[in-house]
Known about the structure:
The protein is an alpha/beta fold.
Amino acid sequence: MNDSAQDNLPPGVLRVSARLAELGHPHAPRMLDDAARTAQQAADALGVALGQIAKSIIFRRKSDDVAVLVVTSGDLRVDEKKVQAIVCAEGGKLGRADADFVKDRTGFSIGGVSPLAHATPPVTLIDAQLFRFDTIWAAAGHPHGVFPLSPDDLVRLTGAPVHEVTVAVEVLS
């Protein structure tokens, strides 16, 4: 990406781009023509499977008001009870994170939350189901910004542990 292209990028994308470069990731963020505020919109824009979208879900740990980031496949739902069991002390609870909380803690707006380069480092978990894919796509700090990586890259870039944190999906025969 040349300097003039970088000058036009939103601040969140610049922050993610700098962090990716600092960590030696070979792929800079790219800007999509249309916003990809949902995993489905991102998958459609990129021409990839919905599960290849690494969506970032933010929860609020009630005991200390810390952000909890769960990075999961776009085709799955996070099981809040599983996440709570991993990140909360016995009896602790997770709560929903509203848009103001997300923006304050991460520095990103909902629909553009990157798995890295947060304003305040969150407690982060990576869903094991992302490992179904060789290449996944994550938000790059803005609803138009994305970047490719492998699930192993995600672990390396975030230092986060991998857990099974999604709702089991029943397959009908």
